């Protein structure tokens, strides 16, 4: 067989299996330390920059959830993986332009990066033809700086205030408001970032009791995120290795 992008080489499979075992152990240990049930935390394998064959290797090792942050790359990879007979649950986790909404809802079951009313509306319209709603997480800005993406808690901005974005998602029949997502700001200690996020999430759930998902924590800080209530961790480099480009 030729070495196509969906051929899984045995040495690569072994490497990924080792990474996966380490990450699963970290998650289990973090859950135990936090007194949480392991079943409460879903690991999303972030496969950006890595080929479809890595997705197939992960799926073969029992990983059901994959994350991507760029539509063009994700759309092609999802199609390749599907052609190989595998359909993981795709989470879109990157900044999303409204004109990409239509493409993203063709393969993504979850969009974690909804951070404006205008994007929520575009996604809601794009998702109308689907047989199942798209689960939407509102991405929250932990430091309140909307320039870096994320809806802002406590802000009355009609486009980027957290309450307005949540209302727009909740009001779209083809979307399901599933919860919140955040990335810890680079210059904040993860401890401080996720403690702040936990406060925001608690207040959010009081208003939207069904929106229980909390997507927080990556390769470097998943333990802290789990301690502060993360239900989804998004893990890339600890599974697949360092990415060649920073993004
Ligand atoms: C790339 C990315 C991740 C994974 O980061 P790692 O440090 O490689 O685990 C998680 N979340 C988002 C939003 C990302 O873009």
Number of domains: 1
What's the CATH topology label? TIM Barrel
Q: Which stretches are poorly predicted, pLDDT < 50 over at least 5 residues?
A: none
- Give the names of the bound compounds: pyridoxal-5'-phosphate
Rounded Rg:
18 Å
- How would you write the strand order of the largest sheet? 7-6-5-4-3-2-1-8
Order of helices and strands: HEHEHEHEHEHEHEHEH
Shape: globular
**Mean pLDDT, all residues:** 95
CATH top level class name: Alpha Beta
Distance, first to last CA: 33 Å
Quaternary organization: single chain
> Total number of helical segments?
9
Concise overview:
This protein is α/β, with parallel strands linked by helices and 247 residues long. The chain has 9 helices and 8 strands.
Tell me what you see in this structure:
The chain is of the alpha/beta class and 247 residues long. The protein has a single domain, classed as TIM Barrel, CATH 3.20.20.10. Helices cover 41% and strands 16% of the residues. The protein has 9 helices and 8 strands. The protein has helices spanning 10-34, 52-60, 71-83, 101-107, 117-126, 162-170, 190-207, 222-227, 237-240; strands at 42-46, 65-68, 89-92, 108-114, 134-139, 175-181, 213-215, 232-235. An 8-stranded parallel sheet has the order 7-6-5-4-3-2-1-8. The two termini are 33 Å apart. The site of pyridoxal-5'-phosphate has 14 residues, from strand 8 and helix 9.
